[in-house]
């Protein structure tokens, strides 16, 4: 696997990495195992290592550390790490998922970052998994990258609360098949639409709408 060669990792169990990139759609077609269990493990490993880093390298209170950790392991963040590393190029997808762009679907691409961490942990141990996270995630924390991960809804809420204005979100459109739904959301301030967002979940569509509104003059 070119990815492992690039990272100078000699695998002990190559099958773990094959599984890490196997989506359920492919697993169902080929009667094999998907990445879901590795994703579960990788999520825990990722949280532990980032929690340890924040505890040892900051003086933040518990609430702030929790918020910061969540910021850098959210779906958008995991998707970005995966794309930067080209992990999505190794995805094994079922025919239908492949045809509908699964290789770039945010939820799937985010999942495989965690499943890869899980495979790395089982195959190489905690120190190698830790080094991988220190090479990919920790620099983003240190340099305060990924401003676009921000909780735009909270930012917008704080902005309008100062003037006691009303803030409401509406899902105005749902499109696409069940496995690939697209939602369009709007955000209104005092009944006027200030932003529109489109995403594959209602929550993300609302975040995109808030982001759109923040770009405009809402003061």
């Amino acid at each position: 696997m070119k990815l492992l060669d690039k990272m100078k990792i000699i695998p002990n169990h190559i099958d773990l990495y094959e599984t890490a990139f196997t989506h359920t759609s492919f697993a169902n077609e080929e009667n094999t195992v998907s990445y879901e269990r590795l994703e579960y493990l990788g999520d825990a490993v990722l949280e532990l290592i980032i929690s340890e880093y924040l505890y040892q390298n900051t003086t933040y209170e518990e609430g702030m550390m929790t918020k910061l950790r969540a910021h850098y392991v959210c779906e958008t963040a995991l998707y970005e790490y995966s794309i930067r590393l080209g992990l999505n190029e190794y995805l094994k997808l079922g025919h239908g998922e492949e045809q509908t762009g699964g290789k770039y679907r945010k939820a799937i691409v985010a999942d495989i970052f965690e499943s890869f961490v899980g495979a790395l942990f089982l195959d190489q141990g905690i120190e190698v998994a830790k080094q991988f996270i220190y090479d990919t995630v920790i620099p983003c924390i240190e340099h305060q990258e990924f401003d676009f991960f921000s909780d735009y809804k909270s930012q917008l809420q704080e902005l309008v609360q100062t003037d006691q204005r009303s803030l409401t979100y509406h899902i105005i459109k749902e499109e696409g098949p069940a496995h690939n739904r697209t939602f369009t959301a709007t955000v209104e301030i005092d009944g006027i639409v200030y932003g529109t967002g489109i995403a594959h979940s209602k929550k993300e569509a609302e975040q995109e709408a808030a982001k759109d509104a923040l770009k405009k003059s809402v003061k």
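The two ends are 52 Å apart (CA to CA). Strands lie at 167-175, 182-189, 192-199.
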